[in-house]
Amino acid sequence: MQEIIVVGGGAGGLELVSKLSRTLGKAGEARITLVDLSRTHVWKPLLHEVAAGVIDKNSDGVDYGIHAVRLGYQFQLGTMNHIDHLQKTIHLDAILDDDNEVLLKERTLKYDYLVLAVGSVSNDFGTPGIAQHSYFLDSLLQAERFHKSLLNQLLKLNQQADNSSQLKIAIVGGGATGTELAAELHHVANLAKSYGMPDMSSARLSISILEAGPSILPALPQRIAHSARSALAKLGVEVLENTRVSSAEKGVFITTEQKRIEADLLVWAAGVKAPDFIQKMGIFETNRAQQVLVNEFLQSTLSPDIYVIGDCCGFKQADGSWVPPRAQSAHQMASTAANNLINSFKNKPLKGYHYVDYGSLVHLSKYSTVGSLMGSLMNSSMFIEGRLARLVYVSLYNMHQFSVHGWFKGFLVLLSRKVSNIVGSKLKLH
Ligand SMILES: Cc1cc2nc3c(=O)[nH]c(=O)nc-3n(C[C@H](O)[C@H](O)[C@H](O)COP(=O)(O)OP(=O)(O)OC[C@H]3O[C@@H](n4cnc5c(N)ncnc54)[C@H](O)[C@@H]3O)c2cc1C
């Protein structure tokens, strides 16, 4: 039986594994294995909500081990650090327990087809001090780490007799992650009042967004940026555009103009690149964002047996631009790669990938959702906001749940999420 290994069970990888398990896996034509360095999947666009503490990995995450048993694929917990494309093997690091004892030894797995779906990490562009002093939202672990610090800071502030003292948070990057996080933090400071911190409110939070370019949300139409800017202004979030950070020290971002922006929590959310190990392996052709270059079928230029999808995939479009690192790109690539793998097994021709931009949405917590939907006519886009925008935003996540769990289980998962939203705690306190 042929072996298909998918490395990375994120927005793209988990959807791909689910589809392959229901088709090639179920038909006994291939053994499907998922490798991920984490035990739990949380859809990455929700990470800022994990960081703020409004969602919980236990109710909103997918346990890979359980999902694998249900869909009939193998799950290997581990970090891939090496690919031998000639021997067609991958190598996973050993896993250590809390006492630094080896829990799982290093492993070498053999594949017939490999799919790289390892996502992206924050790009600090080598800016001095950023890696040491900032929080990032690249993974569940990092989001949880930020959440812990946030709670500690809120508790500390709540204890202080002086009601005028504030918790300062500075976020570098005015993209979707930075703006959505700012709004969510505002919401959480108000929630904290009902969760044992009576002296807490958003008035005690001072949030700044530092954006190097002339406008926040640079990848989106100006009307969306304008709308988001006004919504953030209403929340008292300070938006500093044309502000480039050139270094960081403990508790301070320093701009190119030598302005010092002090904060209790520093967050870096300015751009992404494919993980460094891809570049270090030295076997793939990559672009400036370290993404692996692929052909029209999403096969790496190194080998047709290695597909690449999602944020780590460098797919150049006809107009010379790269497909953007978004959940919708990962979703579409997962679908193309799954169909091409199935077609390979059936000796049918492969299909080319074509990115369709359905628009973008920015969800500013409970306050506002703004975005654009792409029309099919002349690539026109329609501005949407309010309930409609919120509905479309939520439906993106729902589609992911349906892809991963199937329609019936997906519906139950969404229902249970709704119930836990009503009866459960609105703020995670640990
Ligand atoms: C806070 C935030 C908000 C966002 N909001 C939006 C949004 O509103 N709309 C939108 O379209 N996009 C959004 N994005 C971007 C979107 O989340 C990504 O484009 C999408 O998740 C990419 O999917 P992926 O499958 O490529 O990678 P990911 O979903 O990141 O999954 C990668 C997986 O690979 C695993 N992995 C990594 N390295 C290894 C290794 N060496 N070995 C084994 N496993 C490994 C990781 O554990 C992870 O499970 C947001 C991102 C963030 C951080």
Task: Summarize it.
The chain is an alpha/beta fold and 430 residues long. It has helices spanning 13-25, 47-52, 57-60, 64-71, 130-133, 140-159, 176-192, 222-234, 276-281, 327-345, 386-405, 407-423, and strands at residues 2-7, 30-36, 40-41, 62-63, 74-77, 80-84, 89-92, 95-96, 102-104, 107-110, 113-116, 121-122, 167-172, 205-210, 238-240, 245-249, 252-255, 260-262, 265-268, 272-273, 292-293, 306-308, 313-314, 359-364, 368-374, 381-385.
Q: Describe it for me?
A:
- The chain folds into three domains: 2-120 and 274-345, FAD/NAD(P)-binding domain (3-Layer(bba) Sandwich); 130-268, FAD/NAD(P)-binding domain, CATH 3.50.50.60; 359-423, no CATH class.
- The model has no long low-confidence stretch (mean pLDDT 91).
- The termini are far apart.
- The protein has helices at residues 13-25, 47-52, 57-60, 64-71, 130-133, 140-159, 176-192, 222-234, 276-281, 327-345, 386-405, 407-423; strands at residues 2-7, 30-36, 40-41, 62-63, 74-77, 80-84, 89-92, 95-96, 102-104, 107-110, 113-116, 121-122, 167-172, 205-210, 238-240, 245-249, 252-255, 260-262, 265-268, 272-273, 292-293, 306-308, 313-314, 359-364, 368-374, 381-385.
- The chain is of the alpha/beta class and 430 residues long.
- The strands form nine sheets. It has a five-stranded parallel β-sheet with strand order 5-2-1-11-22. It has a four-stranded parallel β-sheet with strand order 15-14-13-19.
- Flavin-adenine dinucleotide is lined by residues 7-13, 35-38, 41, 44-45, 47-48, 79-80, 117-119, 137, 176-177, 275, 277, 310-311, 325-328, 330.
